[in-house]
């Protein structure tokens, strides 16, 4: 412990930025409250997993970049347009780049200078919504969510 050193100007700006982004995320959380849990829960669980992977391995470029054409991404987030807003509010940026074959592809990327603190807090808010919405799922949807490795936490086997 000991006394905390005063924050540098950069840290203060970062904290202000994080706080501002978190209030955007709060608004997004409010905006999805009425969404059907069958669409909402899988989308938020995928977001939570994406965030969790980056928090666990922030230096792994693979986890920081998700192609928007990725099957899971399309399947889970396609039904929740606001998912992109969550990603952007959490510090992700949309990038277009050419793959090896010269085909242009779009990806959401968590930049190196992105705030892990923001990701962690955003993920906590997302998990809170998941926990609130999961009980509303129909048994079939619940089973599907568990099959897809729903929920956060836990080390990979």
Automatic annotation (TrEMBL):
Q: Which residues form the PUB domain?
A: 39-121
According to the record, the residues making up region (Disordered) are 138-157
Task: Spell out where the chain crosses the membrane.
Answer: none
GO CC annotations?
Answer: cytoplasm
Recorded protein name is PUB domain-containing protein
Output compositional bias ranges, type Gly residues. 148-157
């Amino acid at each position: 412990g000991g006394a905390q050193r005063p924050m540098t100007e950069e840290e203060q700006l970062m904290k202000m930025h994080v706080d501002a982004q978190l209030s955007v995320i709060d608004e997004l959380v409010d905006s999805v409250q009425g969404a059907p849990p069958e669409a909402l829960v899988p989308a938020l669980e995928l977001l939570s997993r994406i965030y969790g992977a980056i928090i666990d391995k922030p230096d792994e470029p693979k986890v920081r970049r998700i192609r928007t054409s990725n099957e899971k991404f399309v399947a889970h987030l396609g039904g929740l347009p606001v998912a992109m807003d969550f990603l952007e509010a959490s510090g992700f940026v949309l990038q277009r780049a050419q793959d090896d074959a010269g085909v242009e592809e779009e990806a959401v990327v968590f930049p190196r200078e992105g705030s892990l603190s923001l990701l962690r807090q955003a993920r906590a808010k997302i998990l809170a919504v998941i926990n609130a919405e999961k009980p509303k799922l129909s048994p079939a949807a619940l089973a599907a969510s568990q099959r897809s490795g729903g929920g956060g936490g836990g080390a990979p086997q």
